[in-house]
Write a structure and sequence with these properties.
Layout lengths: L2 H14 L6 H12 L3 H31 L7 H29 L2 H19 L4 H28 L3 H30 L4 E4 L4 E4 H9 L1 H12 L4 H6 L3 H16 L13 H9 L1 H6 L3 H11 L8 H36 L8 H18 L13 H28 L1 H19 L5 H29 L2 H32 L2 H17 L7
Antiparallel strand pairs: 1-2
């Protein structure tokens, strides 16, 4: 095999017909030559561990709410704020983090993001007051936003075109796997009665403190994984660093195939471009400042703020805001509500979910009004059923990834979204009338699964509607609107719950009616 001649022919073809072989298309051919192997096992393992660490930013809170309510003296409103505060951090930095990732690379933000996430998880685990825990969760939200986008991007950029969609879908399914693993670990840890005092009682560590410590190991493991992984070769190409990009691709080839680098078909790829880039460096440097990149980026996104794209952006952002209100209220409050159902399902002839929740909120108000300094707070501790129910919810959440993949090409994203919205309206309304533990679990699981499907359809629709030059920014805007929705929903839910159980569930039903009606104006797909 004449490797030099093959590469020369590839470069010559690129010069004669650049439309066929751009640098990105060349790297796609090179990645295809590398095949699929141990490097991709490492890549997907990193994605799984990183996703679990990210999900824990918001999922640890629902599990500790019942058991830590007395240790931190939390009211329902404070529980809602604790659920929501990571999303405040995410909302503040999401858009700027996306821009910085494209400017400075993926790896630096993955390593710093997960490393910082580990440190603040340790701070959260050491919390002795509600205020410290809220502060730690706020910074966890910021660090999650910093690491989330590059984790998704780098996973796709190491894959050639033919396998990219399947790898991205597989990574998306890790969300449901993460929920199952987290529920199982929470069950094993929070069912213990650990308690330890340090420094003559100055620091009191309860089981929920140890729980956060142990869960922080996922972010530490993600930090180590992403230190091992190289920078994206596609990012190197956008920066004109052809030598670094070639070295990364050669490394992938040797890890996947076990063959020496000399046998790689494209070992001399981009050497001519690298020489040309070095010769032109003084001219390029003048226009490669951050200010120039910002101006260029702003020029590229002008089309997004013109009709019809700006109307689609506003519509999809508004719908995502409302959809995330429902999805994350259902997901984040499920462990707390499940614990209440466990304890109040057979109290005073209570028949339905609202009867149980009203009995709980009434007891909380009575205890608060009649409490004295000598009273001992008794938390509504989660039993085995709560964790089993959360595991069931995780398994049910896998179903949308299967159904959406089968149906979306047959009925179209818009029609599928309208159907999912109509089902969600009925299920959300029915939750209020659930009269058994089985019905509560089934309806919550179905509602969360359908909501997850709708969010996935949003993402697919956004990728289709917006052109490449504005796609990332559009996704950032839409994700930010969803996080604001999560924040608003988690703050309002306990307030509405205090007004009466039926109020929040009727409100959520109304929200989904609005979303379903708005979906009629989506573009056909």
């Amino acid at each position: 095999m004449d490797i030099t001649n093959d590469t020369a022919q590839l470069n010559a073809k690129d010069r004669s017909d650049p439309k066929i072989l751009t640098s990105m298309q060349e790297i796609d051919l090179a990645l295809k030559e590398c095949g699929v192997g141990w490097f991709h096992v490492l890549l997907l393992s990193s994605a799984l561990v990183g996703l679990i660490a990210g999900v824990l930013v918001t999922n640890t809170t629902p599990y500790i709410l019942p058991i830590a309510e007395c240790d931190l003296n939390m009211s329902l409103l404070q529980k809602g704020l604790l659920n929501a505060v990571p999303y405040i951090g995410m909302t503040l930095v999401s858009i700027i983090a996306g821009f910085l990732t494209d400017t400075f690379g993926r790896k630096i933000f993955l390593v710093s993001g997960f490393g910082g996430l580990f440190l603040f998880s340790v701070v959260a685990g050491s919390s002795q007051t509600y205020e410290v825990l809220v502060m730690a969760k706020f910074f966890e939200g910021i660090l999650f936003a910093i690491s989330f986008s590059p984790a998704l991007t780098i996973t796709s950029e190491f894959c050639y075109k033919e396998i990219r969609d399947r790898v991205v879908l597989l990574r998306s399914s890790f969300m449901a796997i993460a929920q199952i693993l987290i529920a199982a670990m929470s069950w094993g840890i929070l069912s213990q009665n650990w308690h330890h005092s340090l420094f003559n009682g100055y620091i009191e560590l309860y089981v929920w403190n140890f729980y956060i410590y142990l869960m922080s190991l996922w972010s530490l493991l993600a930090f180590l994984f992403y230190i091992i992984l190289p920078e994206s070769p596609k990012f190197y190409i956008t920066q004109g660093k052809f030598r670094e990009a070639r070295n990364v691709v050669i490394k992938i080839y040797t890890v996947n195939t076990g063959k020496p680098a000399e046998t790689f078909k494209y070992i001399n790829l981009w050497k001519e471009k690298e020489k040309q880039y070095i010769d032109e460096t003084p001219e390029r440097t003048k226009g490669s400042t951050i200010t120039h990149q910002l101006v260029t980026g702003l020029h590229n996104v002008k089309t997004m703020f013109k009709k019809p794209l700006v109307l689609y952006l506003l519509l999809i952002s508004a719908m995502n805001f409302l959809s995330m209100v429902l999805y994350n209220v259902i997901r984040l409050w499920f462990p707390q509500l499940s614990a209440i159902v466990e304890h109040y399902s057979n109290v005073d002839g209570v028949q339905d979910l609202c009867g149980m929740l009203d009995a709980y909120t009434s007891d909380v108000r009575i205890r608060s009004a009649n409490s004295t300094p000598s009273d001992v707070c008794v938390p509504t501790r989660s039993g085995d059923e709560t964790y089993i129910n959360s595991i069931i919810l995780g398994f049910v959440a896998i179903v949308p990834f299967v159904l959406s993949g089968v149906l979306v090409n047959r009925v179209g994203k818009k029609n599928l979204y309208i159907a999912a919205g109509a089902i969600s309206v009925c299920v959300t309304f029915a939750i209020r009338w659930a009269r058994s533990k089985v019905a509560v679990v089934a309806l919550f699981s179905l509602d969360a699964a359908i909501s997850q499907t709708m969010i996935g359809l949003f993402q697919a629709l956004t990728l289709e509607v917006f052109p490449t030059t504005t796609r990332t920014l559009a996704i950032s805007f839409i994700m930010t609107s969803g996080r604001i929705g999560t924040l608003v929903g988690n703050v309002l839910f306990p307030i509405l719950l205090n007004m009466g159980c039926a109020v929040p569930f009727y409100t959520l039903t109304g929200v989904m009616i609005c979303v379903t009606l708005m979906s009629l104006f989506l573009p056909k797909s």
